[in-house]
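Troubleshooting log. The previous structure file for this entry was overwritten by mistake, so regenerating from the original sequence record. Sequence copied from the archived sheet and checked twice against the printout by T.R.
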Amino acid sequence: MAPADHGRPLTDDRIMNTTTLPTRFRGYDLVIFDCDSTLTTLEGIDELARARGRHEEIKALTDAAMNGDVRLEEVYERRLDMLQPTRGEVAALADQYRENVVTDARELVGALHAAGREVFIVSGGLADAVVPFGAWLGIPEDHVRAVDLQYESSSAVSEVEPQGGDGGLRYRGTTPSPLTRAEGKPMVIRELLRNRIERSMLIGDGMSDLVAAPEVDLFVAFTGVVEREYVTSHADVLITGDSLAPVLGLALSANEEATLATTQYGDLASASRTRIRAGEVTIQRDTTP
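Regenerated output below.
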């Protein structure tokens, strides 16, 4: 499942593990994040499996899809069918996401908003967990795309359960969503960016993110939680530390970052510069015209 070409690969002697980012790689108005293993160190479905004593079994299926070994639709509902989680169990993932938030993620969202950027989450994760986690990060619900589940009561009366409903309702199926399919994330991002002329960037870790790369101006593979070889080898840019702070250096111009450094986000701006100087950003493909 190879992605479409995106940008021109740099030759080995031109790959830039750099202390300063070239101007052409800075300044993106629309910043889109994956969720699991990007904004949080967890894969939500794997944590549901841990509670069922089936972590290794489910994790193997998740990894196969995220590494591109199998198509996402081959395992997405299969995993949920195996686990049959309740709505309460899914909703509780939001707390686990918060407890395992990636370093600097929440501060980064605040800084990006302060600098006038729009921030989105596009995730194949479960909406009952991803939406409240996004709200805690500072990302409004209308800027989050995730997968809604259908639940049924013990009396087998099925319904699409809204947030805040009975946590005892059990999984019945997924509400139709492109995000349950291998090629779904590009479709969702294409719709999200329709008629938008601003420059966009996507930060993620898995194959579903890589295949969406042609829909944005820059694809950044974040390896701070997990490194997937095929994804990292085809990304435009790598962030290789355990923090998302370097995203700030990519999203903002040098002047904007200098201005932000005089605000409450000064420490984050400093962390971004420090980590970039330490070589935690590698430019692999030139996406400029």
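The chain is about 40% helix and 15% strand. Archived copy saved in two places this time.
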